[in-house]
Amino acid sequence: MRHGDRRKRPTGATRRIVMQGALAAAGAGLVARGALADAPYPSRPIHVIVPFGPGGLADVTVRIAAEQMKDLLGQPFVIENHPGAGGIAAANAALKGGPDGYTLIVLSNGTTIATSLFGHLPYNPQKQFTPISTVAWFDLILFTNVHSPYQSVKELLDDARKKPGSLNIGTVNPGSTQNLAAELFRSVTGIKAVIVPFRTSPEVQTALMRGDIGLAIESYTAFAGAIHGSQIRPIAATGLERNPALPEVRTLKEQGVEHYDVTGWNALYAPAGTPNAVIDKLQAAVAKVTAMPGIKQRFAALGTIARSTTPEEMARIFEADRSKWAAVIARAGIPKR
What we know:
CATH topology of the largest domain: D-Maltodextrin-Binding Protein, domain 2
Order of helices and strands: HEHEHEHHEEHEHEHEHEEHHEH
Number of strands: 11
Largest sheet: 6 strands, mixed
Number of helices: 12
Distance between the termini: 73 Å
CATH architecture of the largest domain: 3-Layer(aba) Sandwich
CATH class of the largest domain: Alpha Beta
Helix content: 40-55%
Strand order of the largest sheet: 2-1-3-10-4-11
CATH superfamily of the largest domain: Bordetella uptake gene, domain 1
Number of domains: 2
């Protein structure tokens, strides 16, 4: 100590007081963190990563369901859109959230396609994510021009078989569910038809209305305006059930096309390792919401069906679709991206 410096070194008693204060503060922090960890789930907002842009079918249906789940679980659901090829951006965002139930992701039948279409998908949806439940189910529709002579699938197939190669089928880009649905239709029916890919759904609609293509395969929501404006004609649904927005339109199976089912779905998943109790609580909430008459009506207006599954059922559905679309991609010779 320099001469004249009157500052005193801490005594042993003082050091003990400081140490006790630091330990008390640290203990309080541990208690607070422990209390937060032990708080009933959920105790804070839940983030849902959607691998599509705002306004799409997956985005809209999840937002509708999330509003009701908020009321059931007492916490808001924050929807985050992370569009990107193969759902890579969304998967990365969800995995960063960790397996605590506060970051979920929407996977779809498109995810099952991506596992075969992308040669080096940097995530494994079946290993790195745990299924919770489906939220919405939907089909595709076969459309013709309103002035087309085809009033049914039989008429279309009869003409296609008489004039092989004359039928042009329009869809959005190769590898999309719509495009693979066309590949499956061509394979199952045995017709020789040309599948013409377009970049966007409006381009497909314009080509159909102009007569550049004889058939288009698209969702109800994409063509809803043209349907109700009597500009195009729906002639068949691709699922095993009729589309709720078009109950008068028969399915392909009802019209004699066997072994054909293209039914899309959107489902909630969580990062692998999320506690089973959390998964069960979320699944129960989805089941309650999708059973609500008001929700069923709102989904039906979008051409979708509100329906839940158990995690085990969802895992089986994912694998069945993955296997089916892998075979379609292989038969069509679609190169991996």
